[in-house]
C-alpha cells in the first residue's frame, strides 16, 4: 500500500459511503463474512446494527424536532451551505466532555452540533437537560464499534445536506478492570476498535466534506489523553502505553492478538494504546492532508476530568479517591463544563488553528502546545500504524 492516500482517493471512499459510486482509486473493500465474527467475553450493551429511522421513531415517545430532523434531509439541503450555520459533528456527545463541548458551541449561536451517539433518546434528553437551545443540535445514530454503522452514519449525514466545518472524535471506551478482552462487531478488541479504528474510518470518509467547507478553517480534532504520553508523570503509571512492533494490530487485534503490541491483554493498557494511536493518526493526517486540503488536524488533553463517566468501570475505591486526589494533590482536576469549553476552543478559536498541534492547558498560561511522547512522534511507526489501520477498516490503495 502507498504510504500516502490522496484526498481524491479519500473522496471516493466518502462517495461509496453515500452510495454515489467511485470517484478514484481508493475503494472500501467488500466486507465478506469473515472469521472475525462478533465475539464478546460478555454481551455488549449496544446494538451492532444501524437503527433505522422507522425503528427509532416507533419507540420514541413524541420525538422532538432536533431528533427527527435527520429524517427530513431536504429541509436542510434546500439551504445553500454558505447560508447555514457552521456544523460540528461530535462523537460521544451524549455525556461528559462531548456533551459539554456541544453545549459550549451551541451557546455561541454560530454552530449547529450533530450529536453522533449510540443512543438517540439519551442524547436528546441530555441536550435538553443541559440547556442546549432547540434547533442548535440534531442527533444521528453512530456506533463506532461497528464499521457498518460508521459507513451508515456518513451516508445519513451527507443526506442531511449540512456542511461540515469540524469533526470531533471524542467517544471512547475504557475498561480498566476487564480481565478478558471484549470485541467489536468486526472482531476487533473493543478499546482499539472503538477509540482508534472507528474514528480512523470516520475521519477518512468525512475528509472531503471538511475540505469543501465554506469555513476557511475546517478542523478535525481527535481527543488524546495524558495517560498515553510516557513523557509525563501520569503517562508513566503502569501499565504504560506501548504499541511495540504493532504485531497485534497486524493480526487484527483479534481474540488471538487482542493487544496492539501482541502481548497479553490488559484493559487499562488497551485504552492507553488506543489513545497513542489516535494521536499518531492526527500527526499522519496533518502530514498527508493538511497542505492539500487546508483542514487543520489537532489533538488535545483538556485536563483530568476526574468525575467523568469514563471511569464507570473502575474500582469503587478509585472512583472515590481519584477526584479529591486530582483536586488537592496534583491540582490537575478540571470539571466537565470547563473541559467542554476547552474542547470548543480547539474547535472554533482562530488562535488554536495550528495543524499537527497537541493542545493542553495550565492554570498559569491557559492553552499551550504540548510535547508529544517519543512514540507518538515516531513517524516510521506511524506510517505502519496508518497502513495497518487502513487495511483493517477496508480502505486500500
UniProtKB/TrEMBL annotation:
It comes from the Eukaryota. GO terms for cellular component: chloroplast. It is found in: Plastid, Chloroplast. Residues 1-17 have a biased composition (Polar residues). It holds the Pfam family adh_short. Residues 1-30 are annotated as: Disordered. Keywords: Chlorophyll biosynthesis, Chloroplast, NADP, Oxidoreductase, Photosynthesis, Plastid, Transit peptide. Its EC number is 1.3.1.33. InterPro entries: NAD(P)-bd_dom_sf (IPR036291), Prochl_reduct (IPR005979), SDR_fam (IPR002347). PANTHER family: PROTOCHLOROPHYLLIDE REDUCTASE A, CHLOROPLASTIC, PROTOCHLOROPHYLLIDE REDUCTASE C, CHLOROPLASTIC. Belongs to the short-chain dehydrogenases/reductases (SDR) family. POR subfamily. This is NADPH-protochlorophyllide oxidoreductase. It comes from Volvox carteri f. nagariensis.
Amino acid at each position: 500500500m502507498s504510504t500516502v492516500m490522496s484526498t481524491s482517493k479519500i473522496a471516493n471512499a466518502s462517495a461509496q459511503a453515500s452510495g454515489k459510486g467511485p470517484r478514484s482509486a481508493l475503494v472500501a473493500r467488500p466486507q465478506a463474512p469473515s472469521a472475525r465474527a462478533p465475539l464478546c467475553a460478555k454481551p455488549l450493551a449496544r446494538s451492532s446494527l444501524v437503527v433505522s429511522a422507522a425503528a427509532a421513531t416507533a419507540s420514541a415517545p413524541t420525538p422532538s424536532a432536533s431528533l427527527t430532523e435527520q429524517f427530513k434531509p431536504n429541509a436542510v439541503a434546500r439551504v445553500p451551505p454558505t447560508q447555514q450555520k457552521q456544523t460540528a459533528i461530535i462523537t460521544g456527545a451524549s455525556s461528559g466532555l462531548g456533551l459539554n463541548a456541544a453545549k459550549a458551541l451551541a451557546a455561541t449561536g454560530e454552530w449547529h452540533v450533530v450529536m453522533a451517539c449510540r443512543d438517540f433518546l439519551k442524547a436528546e434528553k441530555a441536550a435538553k437537560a443541559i440547556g442546549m437551545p432547540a434547533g442548535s443540535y440534531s442527533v444521528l445514530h453512530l456506533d463506532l464499534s461497528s464499521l457498518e454503522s460508521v459507513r451508515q452514519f456518513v451516508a445519513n449525514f451527507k443526506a442531511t445536506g449540512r456542511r461540515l466545518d469540524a469533526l470531533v472524535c471524542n467517544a471512547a471506551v475504557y475498561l480498566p478492570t476487564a480481565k478478558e478482552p471484549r470485541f467489536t462487531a468486526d472482531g476487533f478488541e473493543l478499546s482499539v476498535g472503538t477509540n482508534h479504528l472507528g474514528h480512523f474510518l470516520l475521519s477518512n470518509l468525512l475528509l472531503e466534506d471538511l475540505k469543501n467547507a465554506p469555513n476557511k478553517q475546517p478542523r478535525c480534532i481527535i481527543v488524546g489523553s495524558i495517560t498515553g504520553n510516557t513523557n509525563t508523570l501520569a503517562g508513566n503509571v503502569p501499565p504504560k502505553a506501548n504499541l511495540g512492533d504493532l504485531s497485534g494490530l497486524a493480526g487484527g487485534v483479534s481474540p488471538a492478538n487482542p493487544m496492539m503490541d501482541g502481548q497479553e491483554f490488559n484493559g487499562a493498557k488497551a485504552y492507553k494504546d488506543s489513545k497513542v494511536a489516535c494521536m499518531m493518526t492526527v500527526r499522519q493526517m496533518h502530514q498527508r492532508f493538511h497542505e492539500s486540503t487546508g483542514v487543520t488536524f489537532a489533538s488535545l488533553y483538556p485536563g483530568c476530568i476526574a468525575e467523568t463517566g469514563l471511569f464507570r468501570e473502575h474500582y469503587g475505591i478509585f472512583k472515590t479517591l481519584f477526584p479529591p486526589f486530582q483536586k488537592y494533590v496534583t491540582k490537575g482536576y478540571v470539571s466537565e463544563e470547563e473541559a467542554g469549553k476547552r474542547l470548543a476552543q480547539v474547535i472554533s478559536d482562530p488562535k488554536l488553528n495550528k495543524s499537527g498541534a497537541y493542545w493542553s492547558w495550565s492554570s498559569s498560561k491557559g492553552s499551550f502546545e504540548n510535547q508529544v511522547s517519543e512514540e507518538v512522534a515516531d513517524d516510521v511507526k506511524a506510517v505502519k500504524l496508518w497502513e495497518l489501520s487502513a487495511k483493517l477498516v477496508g480502505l486500500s490503495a
